[in-house]
Design goal:
Radius of gyration: 21 Å
CATH class of one domain: Mainly Alpha
CATH superfamily of one domain: Annexin
Protein name: Annexin
GO molecular function: calcium ion binding; calcium-dependent phospholipid binding; heparan sulfate proteoglycan binding; phosphatidylserine binding
Order of helices and strands: HHHHHHHHHHHHHHHHHHHHHHHHH
Number of strands: 0
Distance between the termini: 43 Å
Keywords: Annexin, Calcium, Calcium/phospholipid-binding, Repeat
Organism: Pristionchus fissidentatus
InterPro entries: Annexin (IPR001464), Annexin_repeat (IPR018502), Annexin_repeat_CS (IPR018252), Annexin_sf (IPR037104)
Largest sheet: none
Length: 342
């Protein structure tokens, strides 16, 4: 249970405006396009690293360039060596390094689609992955993920989610998959008032998934006003209401929407990372998924928020929790390639 796992380590920043001020200075991702990139030269470098058996170097090479440039390596490598680059990387590596490298080689959209397919296939569903990906992606990203999922797995993502979830949780995820988030830059006062009214209405008078879908539909300029409005109207925070009215996977999804609304995506992912590295062993799968998916998006900001909330650098946590070449690769991902791309 995502919320039960993370509640111990969750340290709320009481002042919402403080968090918004942090996010107004967002710095973006750690991995950038390399101006020095040459696809043939890099293909040769990858082949040399794989032939030498230097596993760490194989992954570090991939971290000197961004995802688009990694995709550009496939054809020159195939032409020059007659082999599939991804297959050769998998043969050359193993364990956590292989998982990291293959995650880096997928396009961002395909990686999300693969993670979602892994979450719903077989016995049991990994609701944590479903909730994380579907509540944090933009409308454009969700549309691309749905197209990629359909082309790769021959059924719609909506079908897969509907088959493996139930109740209000299923209804909420299917609503989110419609791409309902308003992504405008201005708050609509009428929409804010309507959202406050909906969220202040007891859940027994309205289907819960419809009520809380409001958190996934309002734009981020409206959300702060909505949260303040609910507090003023009911005398209680929306988080308290969610704890009282929701349960199980549905509660986890609504809480994710609330935390993103109240504290922003960087804070949400900082907490997800903390959950992945604490407790009985590090959750490697979750750690790789989060760090790779945010590496060209907002990982610099996640690092800043992580240090502000948990009192230590993310790099220091990774040094404590991970070992060897895998640790070095994650540190390179988190530190980024900016110095190499200037």
């Amino acid at each position: 249970n995502l919320i039960n796992q993370s509640i111990v380590s969750f340290r709320p920043i009481e002042d919402l405006r403080e968090q918004q001020m942090i996010e107004s200075k967002m710095r973006g991702g750690t991995i950038h396009m390399s101006v020095h990139f040459d696809d043939n030269t890099m293909a040769e470098a990858m082949e040399r690293a794989m032939r030498s058996g230097d596993k760490e170097k194989i992954v570090l090479q991939l971290l000197t360039i961004n995802n688009v440039q990694r995709q550009m390596l496939r054809t020159p490598y195939k032409v020059r060596y007659g082999k599939d680059l991804e297959e050769q990387i998998a043969k050359s590596l193993g364990g956590d390094l292989e998982k990291l490298a293959l995650s880096l080689m997928n396009t961002t959209t395909k990686e999300d689609a693969v993670c979602l397919q892994t979450a719903v296939k077989g016995l049991g569903t990994d609701e944590k992955v479903l909730t994380e990906i579907l509540t944090t992606r933009t409308n454009e990203e969700l549309a691309a993920i749905k197209n990629t999922y359909l082309s790769n797995f021959k059924k719609s993502l909506e079908e897969a989610v509907a088959a493996d979830t139930s109740g209000d949780y299923k209804k909420l995820l299917l609503t989110i998959l419609q791409g309902i988030r308003d992504e405008g830059n201005f708050a609509n006062s009428a929409r804010v008032r309507e959202a406050v009214e909906i969220l202040s209405t007891p859940a027994d008078k309205k289907e819960k998934h419809e009520k809380y879908a409001v958190l996934g539909a309002a734009n981020f300029h409206e959300l702060a006003q909505i949260l303040d409005g609910v507090q003023l109207k009911t005398g209680k925070s929306l988080e308290e209401q969610i704890k009282r009215e929701c349960s199980g996977d549905f509660k986890d999804a609504v809480t994710a929407l609330y935390r993103i609304a109240a504290h922003g995506k960087p804070r949400f992912f900082a907490d997800q990372i903390q959950t992945a590295v604490k407790g009985f062993g590090t959750n490697t799968k979750d750690l790789i998924r989060i760090l790779v998916s945010r590496s060209e998006n907002d990982l610099e900001d996640i690092k800043d928020v992580y240090q502000a909330v948990y009192g230590k650098k993310l790099e220091d946590t990774l040094k404590e929790e991970c070992k060897g070449a895998y640790q070095h690769a994650l540190l390179s991902l988190v530190r980024g390639n900016k110095n190499l791309t200037a």
